[in-house]
Design a protein that fits this description.
The chain is of the alpha+beta class and 137 residues long. The protein has 5 helices and 4 strands. The protein is extended.
Length: 137
Amino acid sequence: MAALSGKLTKKLVESLGPGRHGDGNGLYLVVDPSGARRWIVRVTVKGQKNRMGAPLRTDFGLGGTDIVTLNQARDRALEYRRMAKQGLNPRFNASRAIPSFEEIAQQVHIDRMPTWKNAKHGQQWINTLRDYAFIKR
């Protein structure tokens, strides 16, 4: 397949065949032979070297195209490039907006409260998670 010139489009993201397709600025769409599609960004971390003494160049997965849109991938790639330019390795410095298991369980407990047979059952459910699954602080 010929090299793409310019940015990817939503239509291209959905229709490109297997391979690694560049969007520019280190952002790539990777399409597996199975048809699975995911985003990666390649950055060079300022001031850091790999084992061979060359600049540290690293690929980071940004998520599948079923979850991460083209614009979201571009935004995340920009954030990772900015971090790398400041000498921060995104692998260790990326801010995570992913809720913890405990936060999700608390929300599920609140959402499911009306479905319990009685309040005691709901309280037993969350207490069991608290005692055996939540991280002790």
